[in-house]
Design brief:
Structural class: mainly beta
CATH topology: Immunoglobulin-like
Number of domains: 1
CATH class: Mainly Beta
Number of strands: 8
Radius of gyration: 16 Å
CATH superfamily: ApaG domain
CATH architecture: Sandwich
Length: 124
């Protein structure tokens, strides 16, 4: 098997205009870049997220694809998408994995590294 090589980059931003601290609603936008650094085309089939707030509440999200797509990514190319996450505290984290398949029909998991959701200025 030709080892798949997937690099995942994340940018997260707080959306104050959609958030309401009095309502315990903190909204964050995040953009994910999935880069295929391997030698075979791959396709993203599923996603799994663990979203944790500062109170220790963990929400698991599973589903097909990302934002309604199951993108194919050729070697040297990338797929970028943006989505939202809403948590009940001003700080939290997200992490997870993508279920993928290569061109030879072999399934594998691509881990999404943990990243922080934080209202600006809340952490030193």
């Amino acid at each position: 098997m030709d080892q798949p090589s997937i690099e995942i980059g994340v940018e997260a931003n707080y959306l104050p205009d959609q958030s309401d601290a009095a309502d315990r609603r903190y909204v964050f936008a995040y953009t994910i870049t999935i880069r295929n650094t391997g030698r075979l085309p791959v396709q993203l089939l599923t996603r799994r997220w663990l979203i944790t707030d500062a109170a220790g509440k963990i929400r698991e999200v599973r589903g097909d694809g990302v934002v309604g797509e199951q993108p194919r990514i050729r070697p040297g190319e990338y797929h970028r998408y943006s989505s939202l996450s809403i948590i009940e505290t001003p700080v939290g984290t997200m992490e997870g994995s993508y279920g993928m398949i290569n061109n030879e029909g072999e399934s594998f998991s691509a881990p999404i590294p943990v990243f922080r959701l934080a209202v600006p200025g809340i952490l030193n």
